[in-house]
Automatic annotation (TrEMBL):
Alphabetized InterPro entries for the sequence: Flavoprotein-like_sf (IPR029039), FMN_Rdtase-like_dom (IPR005025), ISF_SsuE-like (IPR051796)
Residue intervals of the NADPH-dependent FMN reductase-like domain: 1-137
A molecular function GO annotation: oxidoreductase activity
Keyword Aminoacyl-tRNA synthetase: no
Protein name per the record: Multimeric flavodoxin WrbA
């Protein structure tokens, strides 16, 4: 049983709150996993060519192509993204747009799988976690838990965060907030509540996977939820 972890953060793995929190969830499952960072990968958005409609295989040639089989083979996913303007960043968005390739002619390669979504932001992380859940639902993947956290906004390392009057430190703490040190910069690994949530999410995902996971039942549940959602806008 394999869980595929995806970090959509463009930051280096050792400093990325998203990457480290996704890894924490994966480790808490106690199951086999592979963690892939999208950092420096060339993944473009869907170009609406419909080349995938016949065989459910995207025809755009970039760094997503070698990841396709890993996505199909995975039993579950832990996907994380940073908060960009109260949503997921462009790289993660492009990555998930291309999952459109799996949806044609009742393509069920991903139906009924399970996931945990992870969001990290300079203020809040629930926006990207929610966005990820919505993307996954289109492939009838159930998000069993969402983990969100406050990480270090770019303002803390841009070189001007201690004087900028529109940056996160000032907006959250005024003049006092700008007097930050290495010890006071937010870090997901310094947040006990965040780490506990990640551990609980990982254990829940493992429990759901190993205790009679029924993909058909999950698929039906997600299909009904999506039909109800669309009926609200019809």
């Amino acid at each position: 049983m394999l869980i595929l972890g995806i970090s959509g953060s463009p930051r280096k793995e050792k400093v990325s709150g998203t990457y480290r929190l996704v890894r924490r969830v994966l480790e808490a499952t106690g199951l086999d996993y592979e963690l892939i960072s999208l950092r420096k990968k060339d993944i473009r958005g869907c170009i609406a060519c419909l080349g995938c409609a016949k065989d459910n295989v995207c025809k755009v040639e970039d760094d997503l192509a070698p990841l396709r089989e890993k996505i199909v083979a995975a039993d579950a996913f832990v996907i994380g993204a940073p908060n960009y303007y109260s949503g997921i960043n462009a790289l993660t968005h492009a990555f998930l747009e291309r999952w459109f390739q799996f949806r044609h002619q009742e393509g069920n390669l991903l139906w009924g799988k399970l996931a945990v979504t992870v969001g990290v932001g300079g203020t809040k992380g629930h926006f990207p976690a929610d966005d990820l859940e919505r993307f996954l639902a289109y492939n009838f993947i159930e998000t069993v838990a969402k983990v969100s956290a406050r990480g270090a906004a770019s303002c803390y390392t841009c070189g001007y965060g201690d004087s900028c009057k529109v940056g996160i430190p000032y907006l959250l703490g005024g003049e006092e907030g700008q007097k930050f040190t290495e010890e006071t910069i937010p870090d997901v690994e310094k947040d006990p509540a965040c780490l506990q949530a990640a551990d609980e999410a990982g254990r829940l995902l493992a429990k759901r996977l190993t205790q009679g996971h029924d993909r058909n039942a999950v698929t039906l549940k997600m299909q009904q939820a999506m039909m109800a959602k669309f009926s609200e806008t019809a």
